[in-house]
Structures are given as C-alpha cells and as structure tokens.
Write a structure and sequence with these properties.
The chain is mainly β and 124 residues long. It is built from no helices and 11 strands.
C-alpha cells in the first residue's frame, strides 16, 4: 500500500519561510516523479511544483516561481517543498502527490497517490 505523509505546515508571518516534507512508502520512490498541489476552500486543487524521478527537472506555478523550491532525497524516500517569501495568498492545504510516471508533470490527472494534506497559514 502506497502512503504519502506530509509534515511541516503551520502558521507563519508574511515574508517568512517554511519547509514541507513528504515521506513515502509502499512503492519504489525513485521511479516516479513527485509533485505538490494546494487547495483553498471552494476552489479546485492547483498545481504548485513538480520534480522528475532524479531531481533533474522541475516545474513551478507562475505564482510561486522564484520563491518555492522542490527537491527530493531518493535515499530517504522524501520530497520537500522549501517555501520562502511567503505571502498571505499562499495560505492553503498543501498536498504531496506521486506521479504515474518518472517524468515531471503539472497535470492533476498525472498523479495517482496523494497525501492527506498539511495546512499552511500565512498571516499579514
């Protein structure tokens, strides 16, 4: 059974930083791309960042490019999202997801396993 467990969310002031972690088990982690999405109440889940199987390729949403960094440690079966210069509009539940293939993808349907989410709240 594949499991993804996020951690690292919390309350932070604007311009602050947080690092989210997503620990995985149940599937060979290094074979699949990974991604982060976020969702606020009443809106669709939106893409944030993705990394391919070996960490060599990354894509970001325009809203976070230059502020967020996605990276992975295949030895630890963990993917991270470093979030800097946070803004109140970054407030959301953040979800980690495992892609169906090794290649990074921005598409929601490109992911077949999801974590339970972690809340990030940025105060102004």
């Amino acid at each position: 059974q594949v499991q993804l467990v996020e951690s690292g969310g919390g309350l932070v002031q604007a311009r602050g930083s947080l690092r989210l972690s997503c620990a995985t088990s149940g599937r060979t982690f290094s074979r699949n791309a990974m991604g982060w999405f976020r969702q606020v109440p009443g809106k669709d889940r939106e893409f944030v960042a993705t990394v391919n199987w070996n960490g060599g390729t990354t894509y970001y949403a325009n809203s976070v490019r230059g502020r967020f960094t996605i990276f992975r440690d295949n030895a630890k079966n963990t993917v991270y999202l470093q979030m800097n210069s946070l803004k109140p509009e970054d407030t959301a539940v953040y979800y980690c997801a495992a892609a169906r293939t090794a290649e990074a993808t921005t598409l929601y349907n490109g992911y077949d396993y999801w974590g339970q989410g972690t809340q990030v709240t940025v105060s102004s």
